[in-house]
Please model this.
Amino acid sequence: MLWNLQKARPLWITNLQEDEMEEMESPQSPGQLLNPALAHSVSVASCGNIFSCGAEDGKVRIFRVVGVKCEQELGFKGHTLGVSQVCFLPESYLLLTGGNDGKIMLWDVGSEIEKEQKSPTKHTHRKKNKRATYTKQGGNTNTLVTDEKHGKILPKLSIEHGEKVNWLLSTKIKGYQNILVADQTSCISLYPLHEF
Model:
């Protein structure tokens, strides 16, 4: 819902479950009845008119506020189970997601948003696209990029956290960008984002 707080009423409403029903009717995209599209988390990009929504169906949806309504710019399957958390990094279109599947992923949705942009608005907060490499303790290196041939969005970074992600936040500690993650244990995990 997009609210007018002065009048305490919604200006725009969408139902993710109705959107999911439309997709199920399409022969190209089989629906998933076990995990309905219930919204778990919303994050607003620093530009103020782009926001993301993580849902129980494992999808991430990106919306743009246009006047008094919102238009879905992008939607992609982010996790094998529900997307419990979404969080835009400051001053960018880099999006962190955390899932019930125990994974944390970093997506660069900026290039896709710019493709869909309908008005020639300047964005001074854009960052150049980079390839991300993350080395886990086991020594495995994951390099993931956008599959431009098929137009599919792939994560720039994928971290196997192992526990359901209940909360995540991007923050700078001693000048370096990090991800803080809370799960069902009593500990907060910290993952460095060296290249971002």
Remarks:
- The longest strand covers residues 69-77.
- Residues 69 and 112 are 20 Å apart (CA to CA).
- Residues 24-33, 118-150 have pLDDT under 50 and may be disordered.
